[in-house]
Amino acid sequence: ALVSKTAKILVVGGGGTIGSSTALHLARRGYTDIRILDVFQIPSGNSAGNDLNKVAGSGRDGVWGQIGQASWEAWKNDPVFCPHCHPTGRIDVASGPDRKADELYAKYQAMLAEGRGDEFEWLDNEEEIVRRAPHLHGAHIQGWKGLWVRESGWVAARDALDSVGHECRRLGVKTAFGSAGTFKSLLLGTDGKTCTGVKATDDTEWPADLVVLAAGAWSPILVDLEGQCVSKCWVFAHIQLSTEEAQHFKGIPTMYHHELGFFIEPQASTGLLKLCNEFPGYTRMAKCHPFGLNRETVLSVPRSHAQHPNDTMPDEALDEIKRLVKICLPHLVGRPLINQSMCWCTDTPDANWLLCEHPRFPKLILATGDSGHSFNTLPVAGGEVVDMIEGKLSEERRQLWRWRPGYGDPKGTGRPGPAPKDLAHVLGWNHDSPR
Ligand code: FSA
To answer: Which residue has its alpha carbon closest to ligand 1 atom 11?
Structure first.
C-alpha cells in the first residue's frame, strides 16, 4: 500500500462521481484522515453526476461487464445506493437491420451461450419492442430491432451522489469547498517532485500524504496528463409532464439508441422527462496551463453550467433532441424543452479509466478518464481506486488503467465515428463572457 490507514488523504474533485466514491471506499476501509476538496458541496454542481438521472445496469462484456455487474448488485442492495435505484430494465435499440442490430444480436447470442438467457430477450420487430416498452406505441419504429436487458434501468443520480456525501460525513470525511476547495496547484516536496499536498485558489495550503485527483473533465487542465484525457460536453433537456402523463410512463424501461439518443422513466416527484441526443460530444479548445507543464497550452477546457447558467445549447443538439421526440414520442412534439444544459466528461482514447500514480509526481493518484460510463459504477469506482492505492488490482486491470500517453486512437475520441466538433464551430451556443 502507498500509505497507512492514518495517512492524510485529499480527494480533489471529491464532490463528483469518482471522487465521492473514492472518499466513501477509503472511509469504509478504515482510512481515518480523508478530506474532500471541490468547488461545490457534494453533489458538486460541476459534476456530470449532478443530474436528474443516469442509465445504469449491466449488460456489457469483459472487465466492464464485471464492473457493471458488481455495480448493479450494489445499486440494488447497498443501503447508501438502493433507495436511488430503479430497476426498470433497459432496451437497446437499433433502426436495423443494420450493423448495430447485428452487434446487439451477437451480444444476445453470447449471453445465451453463457447461460444468461433469462436476463435478456431479443426483440425482433416493432410489436415485440412495444410489448416491453408500451410507451413506444405509436412511435415511428417500423423495422427496429432491440435487446431487452433485465438487470438494468436508471438511477436518481443527484440524489445518489447526495447520499454518498451524507455517508462520507457520517464516516468522518472532512470537506472544504469554495475558493478554499478549488485547486490551484500541487505542493511538492524538497525533491521537487513528490506531491505533498494541494494549494487552493484562496492560497490555503492543504498538506497531505496522498492526493487523489478525481476532477473529472477538469483533470487534464489542472495537472498535465500528456494528452491522455480529452474533455467534452454532452447535452440534455427536460419535458415537464403532467401527473397523468407521468403516470403513463411509470415503470418504463430505459431506451437507448446509439444514434438517436436515450430517455429514462420520469421521476415520480417532479414529472420531468430527461432527453439526450447521442453524438461524439463537443470540445471547447482554449488556452490553459496545467500544473507540471512549463508553458501555456491549448486543450478542451470545460465550462460549467452551474457557473454559467445562462449559456445556451447548440442548435443542432436541440434539433437532435427534437428528432428523438418526433420519432419515439410523437405525442410530445412541440412541448417546451426546458432545463437545457450541457455537462462535461473526459474521454481516454481507449475509453478505459486512468487510475494510476502520476509517474512524474509520486503520491499523486489519478482517478479520472470517465469516458462517459462512470456514473453507472458510482458504488464501486472508488473501490477500484483504493485497490490501486493498496496494490490489489489484478494485472489485467492494472494494465487497463495504467499511465499510457500516445496509446490508442490518435484522434483521442475513444469512440467510433467522427471526431468531436468544437463549440466554436456550431451555431446557437451563446455564452455570457469572452472565451
Ligand atoms: O450507455 C450508457 O451508459 C449511456 S452513457 C451516457 C452518455 O451521455 C453517453 O451517451 C455519451 O456519449 C457520453 O459518453 C456521456 O454519457
So the answer is: 372
Pocket test for ligand 1, best of 67, 257, 278 (most atoms within 8 A of CB): 278
Question: 116-142 burial, b for 16+ CB within 10 Å, e for fewer?
Answer: eeebbbbbeebebbbebbebbeebebe
Residue 159 in grid coordinates: 440524489
How far is ligand 1, taken at its centre, from the CA of residue 374, in Å? 9
Model confidence, pTM = 0.96
Of the pLDDT bands very low, low, confident and very high (cuts 50, 70, 90), residue 24 is very high
pLDDT value, residue 346:
96
Q: Whose Cα sits closest to atom 15 in ligand 1?
A: 372
Q: Residue 372: CB within 6 Å of ligand 1?
A: yes
Strand partners, 25: none
Domains of the chain: 8-89+151-424 (3.50.50.60), 90-150 (no CATH)
How far from each other are the two terminal CA atoms of the chain, in whole angstroms? 43
Say how many Å lie between the CA of residue 117 and the centre of ligand 1. Answer: 25
User: For atom 16 of ligand 1, which residue has the closest CA?
Assistant: 372
Sequential DSSP letters for 174-200: EEE-GGGTSEEEEEE-TTS-SEEEEEE
Cβ-Cβ contacts under 8 Å for 108 (sequence gap 6 or more)? 120, 122, 147
Nearest to 146 by CA among 133, 163, 159, 162: 133
Question: Could you tell me how far CA 285 lies from the centroid of its own chain?
Answer: 21
Whole-number Å distance between alpha carbons of 346 and 323:
26
- Which residue has its alpha carbon closest to ligand 1 atom 2? 55
Other beta carbons within 10 angstroms of residue 21's beta carbon come to 30
pLDDT of residue 435: 42
- Whether a cis peptide bond, with omega within 30° of 0, leads into 97 is yes
